[in-house]
Amino acid sequence: MCGIVGYAGPVDGVDALGVVMEGLRRMEYRGYDSAGIVVQAQGALAARKKAGKLANLEELLSLDPLPLAVTAVGHTRWATHGGPTDENAHPHHSADGRLALVHNGIIENYAALRAQLVDEGASFTSETDTEIAAHLVARAYDEVGDLTEAMRLVANQLQGAFTLLALHADVPGTVVGARRNSPLVVGRGKGANFLGSDVAAFIEHTREAIELGQDQVVTITCDSIEVIDFAGAPATTRAYHVDWDARAAEKGGYPNFMAKEIDEQPRAVADTLLGRMDQRGHLALDELRIDASALRSIDKIVVIGCGTASYAGQVAKYAIEHWCRVPTEVELGSEFRYRDPVVTAKTLVVAISQSGETMDTLMAVRHAREQGAKVLAICNTHGSTIPREADAVLYTHAGPEVAVAATKSFLAQVAACYLLGLYLAQLRGNKFEDEVRAILAQLARVPDQIQQVLNSMEPVRALARQMADARVVLFLGRHVGFPVAMEGALKLKELAYIHAEGFAGGELKHGPIALIEPGLPVFVVVPSPRGRDSLHGKVISNIQEIRARGARTIVIAEEGDDAVRPYADTLIQVPRTPTLLAPLVTTVPLQVFAVELAMAKGHDVDQPRNLAKSVTVE
Ligand code: M6R
Questions:
Q1: Does the beta carbon of 307 sit less than 6 angstroms from any atom of ligand 1?
Q2: Are 572 and 589 in contact (CB under 8 A)?
């Protein structure tokens, strides 16, 4: 939540405004309630900020330009304290206007600090928690005469989650940042250095990044990067090379990022599966730094995630329990630590997160580790907090996901969960090597099958355009089709602002069937007829029950499943896959349906209302 960009360039270099505005364009997915920028020029600061999307700030800058500068800081906001107004937009200034500061996160003790500052005579122009930090850092600077030290002193006073970046009129060419529980990465350029909420902020200029640790203060100039911890000691950091370039974060001719990211799914899954076999043909997960003996002795797995990531976890539960016979629970990150979960040294906690920054998931990870559990992160973002704090990480290789709605990251997470399940099954002796290899071979075929689904989506798009006026849409599924149904409903809620719910087919008769009325559209994700027991037949019965009450059925079933035909008002066919792997293909039509319907309604698909890509507050 909130995107931050900082830049320190050489005195004869390019205008910092362009660099930071470009960074903000790439950060806008993190929040779009307001945007602002501050530059340091000729011994003073100059700032512009505006409520609404970045385009509003761009318009303001064209009417009221900023002076040329080589140092700047920018911010895109997802509002927490105070509404999305011009006054609450960042940057915020000190009383004398000589310091400006931007912030991502929530300062939990801000009310007490604000009251104290008011007692001491300060006045504020916004309702934000951020403005107190601007006052405090400026005061500390006046006392100690060093911006880095001032930032460090104030960071120690603050509680909660924060990334702060500050510029001071008296400290030319310098940006100082601090982070606790909120992301900040450094970009090491040639003759210029960068700060960003993630590497997309500066990817156009450099692919060399430095991961900052928890509770660190960083100071950049055009030719130096210095990092200390909150105690003031030099800090250890990790440098890494970003393995994607600026083109990966461009729309590339698509109407929006989401459409592009849906189309990138065959690659995202293929890349996530790539290079997982060792020379002996064993499944090998390099980033899995947990002792094999510890993994053999686990007696419970708890999968944690939020939103779409939690649905990937639900799919994982079916696969892991079936392949490994280890009891597996799925918990929402936001609920986990508050219910006093039974977690021991024999519990493996799997934390799934695209961004690696979701605060609810991060707090659950910390709680699990405090209880002695081993934590394995499944994550798409190198250098982010969750994999850094976990005992091990299995990276998904979906590439940057810019649209707020998760698509390719979901399929990549599901693929990574399969890898984990198979790895544990191999390690614990639940499956023979040839059995693991056979499933991996089936998995290897899935990217082509996703491509086949993508190639056949025109009727789904037409259906979505036809249904643009729908007010309620239901989704039914069973077994691994149940999380797919919930994911389909979530996509429609967040993009089209339509009331949508995903139900387990078996639960229909326990209540939800009362919602069915003539003409109500219901998507049904049908399991393979080759699957276990009579599940396929049971879902057909569910379809008959809702049709009998007038529902309009839109059925997703595998090719060759002729038994469903008579019950489908619309039939969407997907290639045959083994039952457990089906979510990788059955989810795709639901994503396409949601994006097309939202476009038909004229919504901003990449930046749906009230949401942000990375939810870094609890
Ligand atoms: O970055 P994360 O995977 O931890 O994000 C978790 C959820 O916030 C995220 O999946 C959210 O539900 C998506 N916007 C859904 O499309």
A1: yes
A2: yes
Same domain, 60 and 197: yes
Task: Answer yes or no: do 472 and 445 share one domain.
Answer: no
Backbone angles phi, psi at 367, to 5 degrees: -65, -45
Residues 296 and 366 in one domain: yes
Q: Is residue 411 part of a domain?
A: yes
How far apart are the C-alpha atoms of 143 and 151, rounded to whole Å? Answer: 12
pLDDT digits (tens, 9 = 90+) for 85-130: 999 999 999 999 999 999 998 898 989 999 999 999 999 999 999 9
Of all protein residues, the one whose alpha carbon is nearest to atom 4 of ligand 1 is 353
Residue 394 half-sphere exposure toward CB, CA atoms < 13 A: 28
User: Do 377 and 486 reside in the same domain of the chain?
Assistant: no
Half-sphere exposure of 491 toward its Cβ, with a 13 Å CA cutoff?
Answer: 30
Alpha carbon 246 to its chain centroid, in Å, reads 19
> Number of folded domains in the chain?
3
Q: What CATH number is given to the structural domain containing 570?
A: 3.40.50.10490
- Ligand 1 midpoint to CA 260 (Å): 18
Instruction: Check if 573 has its Cβ closer than 6 Å to any atom of ligand 1.
Output: no
Residues 432 and 504 in one domain: no
Residue 250 lies in a domain: no
The token pair that represents 70 in the structure block: 């080589």
Does 308 sit in the ligand 1 pocket, CB within 6 Å?
yes
One domain, residues 358 and 294? yes
Q: Rounded CA gap, 52 and 76, in Å?
A: 9
CA of 311 to the centre of ligand 1 (A): 10
pLDDT digits (tens, 9 = 90+) for 310-347: 999 999 999 999 999 999 999 999 999 888 889 999 99
Residues 501 and 363 occupy one common structural domain: no
Phi, psi torsion values for 200, nearest 5 degrees: -60, -25
Q: Using a cut of 0.85, tell me whether the model's pTM lies above it.
A: no
Q: Which domain holds residue 282?
A: 257-453
The answer to whether residues 557 and 526 touch, using CB atoms and an 8 Å cutoff, is yes
Looking at the annotation, which residues are catalytic?
A: 2, 613
For residues 161 and 306, membership in a common domain is answered with no
CA distance 230 to 233: 8
CA 583/CA 480 separation, integer angstroms: 7
SS3 161: strand
